Amino acid sequence: MPNSKTIAARQRFFGSEAVDPVSGAVREDQVLVSWFGCASFAVAMGGVVFLLDAWVPRGATSGYVPTGPKEVAALEPAAIFIGHGHFDHAADAGTIARESGAVVHGTAEHCATARKQVRGAVLACQELGSSKSAPGDRYDFELAPGLSVTAVRHLHSARTPRHEGADASAPVRPKPCLCDIRAYPPGLGDAGHLARNLLAPEGGVLLYQFRLGDFVLTWHDSSGPLLDKAPHVLDVLRTLPASDVHIGAVQGYNQFTNGLRDPRSYIEALRPKVFVPNHHDNWLPLITARGEAFRTPLHEEFARMPEGERPEVRMLLDRDDYLAPGRLAFDLAPQR
Question: Buried (b) or exposed (e) across 149-162, using 16+ Cβ within 10 A?
Fold first, then answer.
């Protein structure tokens, strides 16, 4: 018998029309992506359900994102892909993996962090290098028959000296919005969870590309200063198939000095048809801002690209686009 909680969770994340009400199977002819805060997404690709990052934002607020780890685990994802190990990306990985049986994918340190969260529980984890792996290292494997995955080691966002010249971008310095702390004040349990995970190590940073038939989905939860510190990684990204959909981080430390130059470098290398910004919502209201603050800077940055190379932007805005079925739905080409 199918788990009624799994059917309900999948219908809430992916839409009632996309999930069989009896079996809980998700339609196989689409790629469905559902955002649940920061850089965390639930994905159904060819009917295979998996997670990109594993943290429901809370601690500075409570209830800002309308779900929790138990409901995310009820999706019964086959896998959890960790971009890096900081709390705002992996703080729920161990719990969700334990409750769902999902296989965690990430560096050795990401696996260690997830296991530390659920001491005594046995978690399956596929290690993709470690914190000592070199930027540009590549890992290829299959998640399911026909669903191939490539992971590429890259860099976390970091502040670099102000870049001058024709390629310089204007700084992006949105004002913090404390209004959401007042509207969604943090509960004691959520604040404690944040405090326990606040100092989790980065453990290395991975970008993932997923390919099913001719469809290509690429995701990363940080955009590092590759142009300045590891330009060869951009060469590696250029060897990957062009992305149909690219979900990439835009908020980062270098925005205060060099604007969105770093995210643009990823977009130029990955050549997407559709770009979806992430890691840009008000998940930590003391230092972050709502996604609306990035709309104009992002379009101004894209104006620096040749018109024929600019992707369509699917802007996600908190809180309207959390768990929004159909917001990110893409048809798969019929398989030959």
Answer: bbbbbbbbbeebee
Alpha helices in 29-134 (DSSP H): 69-74, 87-90, 93-100, 108-117
How far apart CA 243 and CA 28 sit, in angstroms, is: 19
Are 129 and 139 contacting, i.e. CB atoms less than 8 angstroms apart?
Answer: yes
DSSP 161: P
Strand partners, 208: 151, 219
3-state secondary structure of 126: strand
Cα dihedral sign, 144-150-153-155: negative
CA distance 225 to 235: 14
Residue with tokens 């998700």: 26
User: Is the pLDDT reported for residue 1 higher than 70?
Assistant: no
Q: What is the rounded CA–CA span in Å between residue 177 and residue 290?
A: 7
Chain position carrying tokens 């409570």: 62
Question: Contact at 8 Å (CB) between 117 and 94?
Answer: yes
Q: Rounded to an integer, what distance in angstroms lies between the CA atom of residue 186 and that of residue 146?
A: 43
Q: Dihedral through CA 281, CA 257, CA 224, CA 77, nearest 10? A: 0
How many C-beta atoms lie closer than 10 Å to residue 69's C-beta?
20
Nearest partner of 100 among 119, 116, 123, judged by Cα: 123
What the chain holds in terms of domains, given with CATH numbers, is: 4-331 (3.60.15.10)
Nearest to 74 by CA among 42, 121, 119: 42
Residue-wise pLDDT tens digits, 168-216: 899 999 988 888 999 999 999 999 999 999 999 999 999 999 999 999 9
